[in-house]
């Protein structure tokens, strides 16, 4: 086997490991979660031609602060609308009860559906905004 083939196989193996870890974390999160309120403290766009918006957020569980990262795929032309919306914005966070480091944001209607969580009245406008900017492009 050539060194190029070995490199490709090693790369594919590493990707599979990370994909499996991501799937297992998501599976654990969807089966053992709690919902709390957090705050977005950083926002960024993907570089290049990507349409991904990245969020950094923090939340507290039993007095201990946790940090997380999340992303959302959006129309590049509409991403500018997030700049005035994100920093310091209160958001709902789902976290794994037995491991709060495993967490995610509830931003869109689809996020709430995925976890079978009802959208609280105070988050309706926020979810509508996210959906109008990012869903059904």
Question: How does this structure look, described?
Answer:
β2 (52-61) and β3 form a beta hairpin. Helix content is 34%, strand content 35%. With 137 residues, the protein is an alpha+beta fold. The model has no long low-confidence stretch (mean pLDDT 77). A five-stranded antiparallel β-sheet has the order 3-2-1-4-5. The chain is built from three helices and five strands, in the order αβββββαα. It is globular, with a radius of gyration of 17 Å. It starts with a helix and ends with a helix.
Features:
137 residues; alpha+beta; globular
Topology, element by element:
Elements (H helix, E strand, L loop, with lengths): L2 H29 L1 E13 L6 E10 L2 E10 L16 E7 L2 E8 L2 H6 L9 H11 L3
Antiparallel strand pairs: 1-2, 1-4, 2-3, 4-5
């Amino acid at each position: 086997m050539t060194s190029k083939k070995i490199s490709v196989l090693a790369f594919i193996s590493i990707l599979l490991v990370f994909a499996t870890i991501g799937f297992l974390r998501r599976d654990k999160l969807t089966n053992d979660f709690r919902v709390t309120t957090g705050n977005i403290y950083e926002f960024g766009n993907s570089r290049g031609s990507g349409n991904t918006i990245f969020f950094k957020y923090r939340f507290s569980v039993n007095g201990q602060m946790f940090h997380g990262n999340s992303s959302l795929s959006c129309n590049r032309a509409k991403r500018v609308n997030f700049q005035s919306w994100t920093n310091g914005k209160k958001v709902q966070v789902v976290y794994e009860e037995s491991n709060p480091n495993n967490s995610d944001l509830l931003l869109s209607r689809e996020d709430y559906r995925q976890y079978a969580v009802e959208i609280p009245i105070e988050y309706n406008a926020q979810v509508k905004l996210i959906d109008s900017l990012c869903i059904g492009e």
